[in-house]
Amino acid sequence: MATITVPLSLYVHLPWCVRKCPYCDFNSYTAPRSIPARRYVDALLVDLEAEAARAAGRTPVSVFFGGGTPSLIPPAEIGRLIAAIREHFGVGEDVEVTLEANPGTVECGDPAALLAAGVNRLSIGAQSFAADKLLALGRIHSVADIARTVAAARRAGFADINLDLMYGLPGQDVAAALADIDAAAALEPSHISWYQLTLEPNTVFHARPPAGIPDEDTLAAIEERGRARLAGLGFERYEVSAYARDGRRCRHNLNYWTFGDYLAVGAGAHGKISTAGRVWRYAKPAHPLAYMERIERGAPAADLHPVSAKELLFEFVLNGLRLTEGFDTALFCAHTGLSAGDLEDRLAAEVDRGLIGRSPDGRWHATTLGQRFLDDLVADFLPDAAGALCTAGRGGLVFQGERASNSF
């Protein structure tokens, strides 16, 4: 078997939320009165052992607990998972271990206990610092909860904190969007994920769009002014919606965007794994009950499906062009197994259209025009028979049509 050079990450899905947000299309479920945390984590531990066998001795460069709201799971159970990850994969203390949390006592839990369990990076879903916007988004935390949660995380010892922040909100203008950025930066996070509200299929907002969504001209002005404001505040934009301070780029997401491999553990988690000469995808059962029952009866949690050359090209470009620095041809060849000609022949037409450029060091990147129309640009790389392919999402590429209804 050929030597594997593709880096590896581990994604663990914890699917419950206090309440499903109307814009959310992730595989998440309103929590029952009592979350079956122990039973679910027991299933995850079995799944982890199987994924370790799939890794065949490769060590993850990062671990990400996504959801849902992972911080609803007791820190002791998170600690059990991290201990098993260290045992099965041999990860060290320096591995980035991110856990998503929401502001508020209930939704964030105990940051000190999470740090003691082995989490070293918190990603906090602030979304906005305007009370009316939080209400419009269906969020259950207050503006004051955000500051309290960040302060508690700092007191606990977290040095690496991301804040999720949305723009393009109902009734939002440029000044309001910039005020959100200023309020987030004032809390001194090491990272801000600043992304546009989109009306995704299978969401409440898609079925009943909220009034007052900003028009295209306002969105363009928000993006231009917002990016400049973040840069002025010391946040380096390294991906379409990711801004880091002091070099604190998210290692886990960088692995997705550079088309690394990732193992999938948990309900609805999607994985990608490279073996000699092939790239494979797989997904776990979406509903947590179906997932637990399948694990408990000893059935394989997922089947591998090969990714075709055309799909590989599309998926690589979909991710790689999100990076402001772009990618080089050598990375494409190493992470897809395809030839340089497979990529460069397809890029030539986009260069002629002014949507893709090439830097002096040979890296391909979306031009300013290409970034503005990035969705249209990557769509040009869709395979001819692109039925239900995939879109970028938590846990890597999320295949359409596999999201379950919001019930447990």
Could you characterize what this model shows?
By secondary structure, this protein is of the alpha/beta class. The chain has two domains: 8-256, Alpha-Beta Barrel (TIM Barrel); 309-382, Winged helix-like DNA-binding domain superfamily/Winged helix DNA-binding domain (Arc Repressor Mutant, subunit A, Orthogonal Bundle), CATH 1.10.10.10. Helices cover 39% and strands 20% of the residues. It contains 16 helices and 18 strands. The chain has helices at 37-55, 75-89, 105-108, 111-117, 131-136, 143-156, 174-186, 204-207, 216-232, 251-257, 288-296, 309-320, 329-336, 340-352, 368-372, 374-379, and strands at 8-14, 16-17, 29-30, 62-67, 96-101, 121-127, 161-167, 191-196, 236-239, 242-244, 261-265, 270-275, 278-283, 305-306, 356-358, 364-366, 390-393, 396-399. Strands 9-10-8-7-6-5-4-1-11 form a nine-stranded mixed sheet, with helices on both faces. A three-stranded antiparallel sheet has the order 12-13-14, with no helix packed on it. Strands 2-3 form a two-stranded parallel sheet. Strand 17 (390-393) and strand 18 form a beta hairpin. Helix 1 (37-55) crosses helix 11 (288-296), helix 4 crosses helix 6 and helix 7 packs parallel to helix 9. The chain is globular and about 55 Å long.
Question: How many DSSP-defined strands?
Answer: 18
Q: What is the name of the CATH superfamily of the largest domain? A: Aldolase class I
The average pLDDT is 91
Estimate what percentage of residues fall within beta strands.
15-25%
Specify the biggest β-sheet: 9 strands, mixed
Task: Output the CATH topology of the largest domain.
Answer: TIM Barrel
| Radius of gyration based on Cα positions | 21 Å
Bulk shape: globular
Can you tell me the number of structural domains?
2
End-to-end separation: 42 Å
